[in-house]
Every structure is written in C-alpha cells, then in structure tokens.
Q: What sequence folds into this?
C-alpha cells in the first residue's frame, strides 16, 4: 500500500476564550472558539451554561453549545480511511437537576445532541469466519429491522458486542 504524498503545507490554528461568573446562587460559563483549517476553512463554535442554586444542596442547570471537528489525516488517507470525509458539526442542548450534600451527589440531565457528518472509525472484522464469536451473535441479526425502527444499529449495542469479544482486555 502506497499513500500519495502528504501536503506538508496543511495547517490548523485555533483560538479559544472562556469566561466564568458566579454571583450568589447564579453561575454562568461561556466559551467561544474559532478554528481555521487550511483545507476546510474557518469555523466558530461556542457554548453557554447557566446554573441556579434554588435551595440548599439543589441546583438547576441549562446549557447549549456547538462543536466542529475536522477529520484526521489517518481517518481520511490510511488504508481504512475515507478521503471524502467532511468535518463533523454538532449542536447540543441540555437541562439538569442536581443535588449534593457532603460526599453524596445525585443528578439527572436531559439532553439532545444533533450531529452532522459523524466521523467514526470501526476496526474491520471478518463476520464470516466460523470461530468469530461476533459472527455467531450477529448472523441472525436483522439489520434492516434496526434501521427501520431506529434509523441505525445503536452504537451502544455495537460497542458492547465488540467489547465482549475480548472481555479481559478492557483495562
């Protein structure tokens, strides 16, 4: 396998700024970042989070943010790469309720992440070998049913299957 020469003129630069403010029961955190990539251009991201302590030990929170991630050279140009990958962009919003007292803590957070051009790398697996445990688990799996019901095969399920292949290597 021979790769094409890498453009050594490629570069990425970024600048980020964050600010936190606390006044009584109120907490505010803001952040902004601007990335410039020689191939994909510039893109700004940011976030804002607010928390309010409404009773002793209790706090309600809300946050919103954006994300931008350029694919690495490995993700684009290795033998497993995809040269046409585009940058990943995301938006997140969340609300939460938190309680703490001494060393005890409890929290619940509801969130929504919307990701465009999700970049993932999956190790190639030969599903058709007779001694492959994953192939035994997935042989009868109806992928079309997952896609019809959920839009995709859940990443948590795929991850759990891969982790179970080598359970003693999880450290």
A:
């Amino acid at each position: 396998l021979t790769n094409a020469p890498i453009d050594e003129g490629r570069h990425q630069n970024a600048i980020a700024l964050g600010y936190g403010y606390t006044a009584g029961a109120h907490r505010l955190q803001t952040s902004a970042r601007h990335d410039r990539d020689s191939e994909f251009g510039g893109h700004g991201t940011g976030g804002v989070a607010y928390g309010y302590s409404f009773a002793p030990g209790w706090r309600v929170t809300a946050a919103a943010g954006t994300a931008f991630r350029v694919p690495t050279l490995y993700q684009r140009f290795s033998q497993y790469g995809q040269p046409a990958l585009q940058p990943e962009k995301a938006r997140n919003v969340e609300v939460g309720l938190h309680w703490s007292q001494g060393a005890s803590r409890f929290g619940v957070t509801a969130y929504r992440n919307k990701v465009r051009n999700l970049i993932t790398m999956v190790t190639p697996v030969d599903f058709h070998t007779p001694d492959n445990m994953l192939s035994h688990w997935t042989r009868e799996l109806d992928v079309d049913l997952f896609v019809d019901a959920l839009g995709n095969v859940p990443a948590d399920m795929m991850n759990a299957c891969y982790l179970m292949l080598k359970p003693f290597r999880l450290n």
